[in-house]
Amino acid sequence: MQPLIEVNKLVKKFDTLVAVENLSFSVYQGDVYGFLGQNGAGKSTTLRMLLSLILPSSGSIRLFGEELTPNHKSILNRVGAVIERPDLYKYLTAIENLRIFARMSGVRPSHRLLMDQLEMVGLAERANSKVATYSQGMKQRLGIAVALVHNPDLVILDEPTNGLDPQGIADMRNLILRLSREFQKTVVVSSHLLTEIEQIATRMIILDKGKKMMEGSVADYFQPASNKVHLGVTNPEKAIELLKKEPWGLQVELSREELIVSLASHQVPALNRYLVEQGVEIQSIRSVNSLEAYFLSLTSGNQHVAAFTN
Amino acid sequence: MWQLLRIELFKIFKRPRTYISFAAIGAIVALILLAFYADGTNYMAFGMQSLTQSFDIQGKVLNGYLICFIILQTLLIHVPLLIALVAGDQIAGEANMGTLRLLITKPVSRTKLLLAKFFSSTIYTILLLCWMALLSLVVSILIFGTGDLMILKSEEVVILEKADVLWRYFAAFGFAAIAMTTVAALSFLLSVFAENSIGPIVTTMSIIIVFTILTTMDIPIFNAIKPFLFTTHMIGWKGFFDAPVQWEPVLQSAGILLFHIIAFLVATILIFRKKDILS
Description:
Number of strands of chain B: 2
CATH superfamily of the largest domain in chain A: P-loop containing nucleotide triphosphate hydrolases
CATH architecture of the largest domain in chain A: 3-Layer(aba) Sandwich
CATH topology of the largest domain in chain A: Rossmann fold
Oligomer: heterodimer
Structural class of chain A: alpha/beta
Number of domains of chain A: 2
Order of helices and strands of chain B: HHHHHHHHEEHHHHH
Largest interface: A-B, 33 and 24 residues
Radius of gyration of chain A: 23 Å
Distance between the termini of chain A: 36 Å
């Protein structure tokens, strides 16, 4: 199958700073493709190059089988994007913003169609309100409506959950999944949050300091059955002895006064109950899934942990 | 292109700040008219003191044509600021709002987008001057009537017959449109380098002030550069009020201003086509 996006040996330098280094990856039709990396990893720079906002220093970008630079007009006609904050004209209403950007994309949708678009993102009731009165979450959803107004095949969303409250994040996640499943869009989405990517992406790439650390199917790296469970207990020696014995028979590592065992998520409550019944007091339990563990091994260093595990 | 121009005009005229310029010109013209209505006779008597000692002046000197000429003199002072307010905001303002990156992701060439923005700034400039002409010429004539136009210059007095004045105003406002479009083009160029509109507006005004000071100072070292400063040619509209009109310097000034407009616009396009949009 021909890739929808084919990036080959892409480089972007800002003076002496190499923001993206020799990056190659492919996105296929139907993918929800996750871009994962900490702030400054090169995600936004790469996405901006896919949209002609930034010119590459070298390398090639092909979208829909065509070279981007000479064909960017016809290519961008098939792409919708929200880059970072979805800033729109605050002094215009939602429907005026939507109409302007539809016309810039060469389409003249009817009022009904524009309202349908706003309905899809849950903003129909505020269609005639000025964007200045919108919350961050509403702006984000309007940004998605603007990105979709010309019915693109490919949707690029850069950090779409930034600045949203938990409900807003959940709504955005559902919207992205709907775009993929219901509307058959190919979606490229970036985030610095591992949990975001693993919940929505089918394939992903991990970037670190402008370089590709891995690319592949999320399912290959995310195996819920092999979670690493970190236990903080009052009596580690006794706990290790109990965990090694039947019925658990687990391999136990001791790291920074925490016991680490490999265990499926659904078994964690039973393990907790067992240790308490045996007189071991639990101070903390946290699960680190295999993808997270893999990710941390790639980006190594404690400073990354907070950013990626949130 | 037409569609883009319509969008840009829609955005300009939907912004409240656009109407500040129209209100400012309305206020300035209204104040000048009010002042002349209340105390114009005394002002004229004082201004013409030296002339009336030697000549017997008959007829209505204080008329709508003279007041319009006085208002036009203020053109270089405040209109460039009002032009820069919109033209300087065209790209830098979009970058500041964060909408520039959204515009660039649309299937429109950067050159066409810039041309649409520049032409919309030009239309705004022309409308602002039409508004100024309407108030300063039409309203002045309605209040003070018409008559021969007497202009006091440093070394001569020019008297233009009533029937020979109106076309000169149309020509002068046409020339002013070219001069103010030069300001718009400069501000537009500066707008490419900034991420908020204050920078281009202040820089445009600083350049105009510095160049105007150089133009007005009669120092030999500056005389050599004066012909190359666009501000020298911005007052070329005054040539239409000579008798007879000296066409060569007027047309030369218009040509130099048009050259500046094209040079500023081409530079803007060349820079913007290569610019990384990081805002």
